[in-house]
Amino acid sequence: LIDAQLYNSAFTLHGVIMVFLFIIAGVPAVFGNFFLPIQIGAKDVFFPRLNLLSWYLYVLGGIIAIISLFSDGFPDTGWTFYVPFSISTNTNVSTAVFAAFVLGMASMLTGLNFITTVHRMRKEEMGWMQIPLFTWTLYATSWVQLLATPVVSITLLLVIFERVFSVGLFDASRGGDPILYQHLFWMYSHPAVYIMILPGMGVISEIIPVFSRKAIFGYKAIVWSSLGIAIAG
């Protein structure tokens, strides 16, 4: 039905929108903004203006990602932007990579905001072992966002730098190392798996006890496993 080039472009479009615009930002940002303040007894997040800035960056990143699809050819590298193909293809990879960079900035600001909110705005009588499980998973996720996202942000900028200046950072023929890109990229993208799954686990941990009318079993085990997963990521 379609040729190889269009398939690669559609695959890239699907990956960028799915990963950077939905999975990474969906449950943590949307559910977190609505339910985290409620669960810890706060009126709002600690940095409301920073929160608004992260929303603007998210929208801007989405617009740039869509623009990249309609100018100078669809990016065709897949959402991972693997080198050496991403630095040699003639499609509009730089714009798509910059969109992912902007979306990463939004993710970092959201994580910083949630961490500060949990530390500074929860009720005085709410100790660390009284925090709801969904808030715990958001807290662990926020640390992953804050610590891991800068790595991929720098890596994506290096791809743009390589495409513009051709310095050979990832080009083996010029003394570079394409495997270096993979190491840097997966220093973020492996923890990103936990950005996706930890809030989902938190949602399940809240819904099942309510509708089964049973007290949560193993609260401390779930809390420490969430933090352990975040640290291992």
Summarize the structure.
This protein is mostly helical and 233 residues long. The protein contains 8 helices and no strands.
Task: Give the tags.
mainly alpha; 73% helix; elongated
Q: Could you characterize what this model shows?
A:
The protein is mainly alpha-helical and 233 residues long. The chain is 73% helix and 0% strand. Helix 6 (133-165) runs antiparallel to helix 7. The radius of gyration is 20 Å and the shape is elongated.
Structural class: mainly alpha
**Helix and strand succession?**
HHHHHHHH
Percent range for β-strand residues = under 5%
Assembly state here?
single chain
Low-confidence stretches are none
Total beta strands: 0
Mean pLDDT, nearest integer? 87
Query: What is the straight-line distance between the termini?
Result: 40 Å
Q: Could you tell me the radius of gyration in angstroms?
A: 20 Å
Fraction in helix: over 70%
Shape: elongated
Largest sheet: number of strands, sense, barrel closure: none
Number of helices: 8
